[in-house]
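for the recovery benchmark. tokens below, seq after
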């Protein structure tokens, strides 16, 4: 198993240490700079046109899949994410957890909005690994076997444009969507965010409605009774407690080899609607 690190940025930053640490541990490093392009000496991917946030990640994902094996994991993040324990220790922790639990999709411990209720509850119950519903897109870890089914990306912009990665994983095997809570991250440049590009009319509510066909019916139904972000916070708490009651076990069911028909039909419909 290898990690394929896919980061994007609109700033110029020294990534010598990050790249060297990844390479020393046998992992790959890809970087796309949507603002500075080839003028970024660490960017090894480029585009003839400036891409939105979601399309930048799609570019990175497509490149990662060219070399990924099915047991690899693709780690997508912006370069303003910092690992609390330091990158080398965090990678060792992450490698161990991925090998043990083999999730389809994973996120990391964060103080961001999606874990607000979970963090308040952590004084009572603070497991290193927990089930999760949805998370902020600061870091997304997806198995390469599943990632092959997730391109092209139908939404062009920011906000929840890549939530469907976790939603598809839930639809295939919900218990394989995990949060490695003790691998802690934090954002170092929150003031630099917001330049997502793409469709200016996108919102998390529009994206959620568009994802309705791939959301499990019970969660689609329950989301009608609350605003979306509070619903996600409460549902994440529910998944934490569900894991406490039933346990979090290694996933023994890899992603299907062929793209499910329901997913192909949804991607075809969404790409036609949003990209043309």
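predicted aa per position
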């Amino acid at each position: 198993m290898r990690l394929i690190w896919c980061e994007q940025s609109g700033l110029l930053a020294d990534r010598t240490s990050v790249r060297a640490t990844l390479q020393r541990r046998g992992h790959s490093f890809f970087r796309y700079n949507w603002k500075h392009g080839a003028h970024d000496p660490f960017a090894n991917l480029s585009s003839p046109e400036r891409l939105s946030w979601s399309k930048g990640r799609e570019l990175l994902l497509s490149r990662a899949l060219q070399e990924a094996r099915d047991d690899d994991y693709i780690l997508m993040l912006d370069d303003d994410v910092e690992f609390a324990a330091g990158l080398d220790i965090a990678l060792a922790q992450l490698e161990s957890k991925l090998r043990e639990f083999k999730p389809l999709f994973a996120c990391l411990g964060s103080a961001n909005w999606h874990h607000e209720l979970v963090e308040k509850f952590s004084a009572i119950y603070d497991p290193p690994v927990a089930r999760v519903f949805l998370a902020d897109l600061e870091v997304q870890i997806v198995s390469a076997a599943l990632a092959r089914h997730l391109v092209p990306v139908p939404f062009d912009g920011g906000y929840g444009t890549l939530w469907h990665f976790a939603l598809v994983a839930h639809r295939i095997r919900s218990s394989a969507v995990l949060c490695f809570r003790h691998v802690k991250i934090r954002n170092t440049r929150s003031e630099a965010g917001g330049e997502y590009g793409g469709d200016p009319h996108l919102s998390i509510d529009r994206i959620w409605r568009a994802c309705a066909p791939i959301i499990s019916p019970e969660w689609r139904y329950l989301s009608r009774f609350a605003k979306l972000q509070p619903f996600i916070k409460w549902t994440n708490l529910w998944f934490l407690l569900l894991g406490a009651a039933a346990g979090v076990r290694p996933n023994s069911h890899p992603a299907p080899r062929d793209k499910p028909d329901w997913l192909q039909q949804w991607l075809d419909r969404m790409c036609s609607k949003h990209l043309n």
